[in-house]
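Section 5.1 Outputs to date
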Amino acid sequence: MPARAQLSRPPLERMLRIHDELRRGALINCTKLMQALEVSRKTVVRDIAFMRDRLDLPIEFDAQIQAYRYTQPVNSFPTVHVTEGELLALLVAQRALQQYRGTPFHRQLEIAFEKLAGGLRDRISFSPADELRAVSFKNIGLGKTDLAVFNALSGAVLRQLEVAFDYRKPGDPGKSRRRVRPYHLANRENSWYLIGFDLERQGLRTFAVPRMADVAVTKEHFKRPADFSPEKFFASALGVLGGTGDHRVVIRFAATVAERVREREWHESQEMRELPGGALELRLRLGALLEVEQWVLGWGATAEVIGPPELRASIRKTAAALAGIYGA
């Protein structure tokens, strides 16, 4: 077998390619398929035999034209067998795609769904309209990402190539040129972030993709550290911003919101303790305090920071500023 065959397409992708060629009436034989799919003759014969014998596709070899053909029309490739419940789940997933509209992944996810659904049309007739009226998805504040910027960054991450870009920090009207070894792209808090090693600052940094401009992918290769993992990087963050600190955060929630707090997992380190009267105490171990401060303020007077002292002091300062704005 040629060495290049080791890099050939997966079996399902090969058979889908063969199916497409047969359906459009192309004159294909083993030689042409070997070249197109970069596999051996044995692999081509095995794929066709599987399609004919296991998937019941009407394939035959026509000696007169020296090519394979379908003996009758075939509308779809029978790769997926699902129950009505599974189809409902698939259609719910389609509805969920709407939350990604305007993001780089929406079209790719839409195409993938169309491929899956296409193989079901001749096997299941099912109208879930009534059920789907009760299903919807809504994310507030979806981040805006330039598709060209995202594609350049994702390519650089995959090929491990250094990138250069202009970056604007929050509240800073100016931009600075950064050169980074991109390790990972992450979608956190409904926005895209790049984690990379900043060559000038000699450390890992998190960059908001919407704040990037003039992204250039260089030809400089790098090797991603074996001990890097996004899970480890974000372990100390409530959302996006981690840190090197070790803050033991304690927050008490009033009984009126305690049930809402209990219902969700806010962080891997969380511990909850029931308090008299239905109140709740939440404990977190975080590397930085900025995000948890903003989160606590979102709960208004129903959440009280018990510790650490510096977080409580910062909340008190913000509360005083708010009192000045709205009137004591």
